UniProtKB/TrEMBL annotation:
This is M20/M25/M40 family metallo-hydrolase. The keyword Hydrolase applies. Coiled coil: none annotated. It comes from the Bacteria. One of its GO terms (biological process) is L-arginine biosynthetic process. PANTHER family: ACETYLORNITHINE DEACETYLASE, N-ACETYL-L-CITRULLINE DEACETYLASE. Residues 221-326 form the Peptidase M20 dimerisation domain. The keyword Metal-binding applies. The lineage of its organism: Bacteria, Bacillati, Bacillota, Clostridia, Eubacteriales.
Length: 439
């Protein structure tokens, strides 16, 4: 059966890439409700073209695509909203279009997560058009608020039955069954000399390290600080433009926000804040280190607002994180409030669905293991969900950065793996050992 799904997907490669391009061209930036809805409607129309059953939440913020029927449901959880484009001058290709070059597709959302949306849809199309019998329902859930507060997932859970298990193709292989937590803390600084600031701006999404910061003081020239962007779950791989600006405070003016950021946030593991004990273990288990980074900054009427994005390990809560910031409110003249917090998750490696994912992945010639993800995905939204693909360990990951891309080889390999898994999990054959990939 796998030979048939592999061959079908190869045959549909050109059409798949065309659909990804059309979806990327819809500028569904997070918070743009109209365009996010338009992106969902495009996915829905294509699913209907393929003869799949579709429905929407009442708020039109989630599209649900179903195939098959049965007492159990296998879910695939994706999203069409994307982060901002960052610095337009740092893009080699048009950010809100899809360009094919160097064996990859380029553009905002190609990897996170519009490419995987269409990969998943074409997998369901393959299973349907090949007439593969299913004993379970397969449900593709496409959200539109993943890059912000997940109101879409709340609406979905209120209006639809949750799948029994599944995955989100919003990260990397092999299997990420453990995820750090996520929190955003808003710091509002009342600067005594804030009237000196005529312009202050950096960052366009709370979960992206900014590559450019701009400041202008009264009577002075505008100064731009350039850095390197990255996903905020990997701040150590970036060069944060906000931090660079704050380290230059003696040249500018020693504002409280600059002093605080330089002292407490210049090291992404924030030892000065003491959010945890600084080790990578919790109760004897590997949990990674907590990280924090300033991601968005602005000023208005002398008040400076800073968003701090935090990826915390087990043992931290939103309340405990907020308390650490509040210890310094008086000294630096700010107020801290918690905008959003999601706890870390750990899904048991013993789940049959995860073991089947492992077997399928290995049958395609890859080494599988269970991993910790520093990022935050929709896997936190539903029980027994993990992050699984589409990136492979050797791929270049430019998610949330300028020149976001996904290789065509990765697209096709991931599609075949997903199809093999969903056929096995969804069919009456159940979680048996999949056939070995041909050399």
């Amino acid at each position: 059966m796998r030979k048939k799904t592999d061959a079908y997907l190869e045959q549909k490669q050109e059409e798949l890439l065309k659909d990804i391009r059309e979806l990327v061209r819809i500028p569904s930036l997070h918070g743009d409700v109209q365009n996010c809805t338009a992106a969902l409607e495009y996915v829905r129309r294509r699913a209907q073209d393929f003869g799949l059953k579709t429905s929407m939440t009442a708020e039109k913020d989630v599209c649900v695509i179903e195939l098959g029927d049965g007492p159990e449901t296998v879910g695939v959880l994706t999203h069409v909203d994307v982060v901002g484009i960052g610095d337009p001058q740092k893009w080699t290709y048009p950010p809100l279009d899809m360009t094919i070059d160097k064996g990859a597709i380029w553009g905002r959302g190609t990897a996170d997560d519009k490419g995987p949306v269409m990969i998943s849809l074409y997998v369901l199309r393959a299973i349907k058009e090949l007439g593969i019998p299913l004993k379970k329902k397969i449900c593709l859930i496409v959200g539109s608020c993943e890059e912000g507060i997940w109101t879409d997932m709340e609406h979905f859970k209120e209006q639809f039955p949750a799948p029994d298990h599944g995955f989100t193709p919003d990260g990397a292989f092999p299997i990420y069954n453990v995820e750090k937590g996520y929190a955003d803390i808003c710091l509002t600084f009342s600067e005594p000399e804030g009237c000196r600031i005529t312009r202050l701006l950096a960052g366009d999404s709370r979960n992206t390290i900014p590559s450019r910061a701009v400041i202008q003081l009264k009577g002075g020239e505008e100064i731009t600080y350039d850095g390197i962007s990255a996903h905020s779950s990997a701040p150590e791989s970036a060069d944060n433009a906000i931090i660079k600006m704050c380290k230059d405070r003696e040249k500018l003016y020693p504002f409280n926000f600059m002093k605080f950021i330089d002292r407490f946030l210049s090291d992404c593991h924030v030892p000065q804040l003491k959010l945890d004990d600084g080790t990578e273990f919790y109760n004897g288990e590997y949990a990674g280190k907590t990280t924090a980074a300033p991601t968005v900054i602005s000023a208005e009427n002398g008040v400076v607002t800073v968003n701090v994005n935090i990826r915390h390990r087990f043992g931290n809560t939103g309340e405990s994180i907020l308390a650490r910031f509040r210890e310094h409110e008086r000294e630096y003249n700010f107020k801290a409030r918690l905008i959003e917090c999601q706890d870390p998750i750990m899904v048991s490696e013993k789940l049959p669905s995860l073991r089947l994912m492992q077997q399928v992945y290995e049958s395609y010639g890859h080494k599988s293991e269970f991993c910790l993800a520093p990022g935050c995905t929709y896997a936190k939204a539903l029980e027994n969900f993990v992050c699984w693909g589409p990136f492979f360990p050797d791929d270049v990951d430019r998610v949330h950065m300028e020149d976001e891309c996904l290789s065509i080889k990765t697209i096709m390999e991931a599609a075949k793996i997903y199809a093999a898994y969903l056929v096995l999990d969804g069919s009456e054959s159940g979680p048996e050992r999949p056939e070995q990939a041909e050399s």
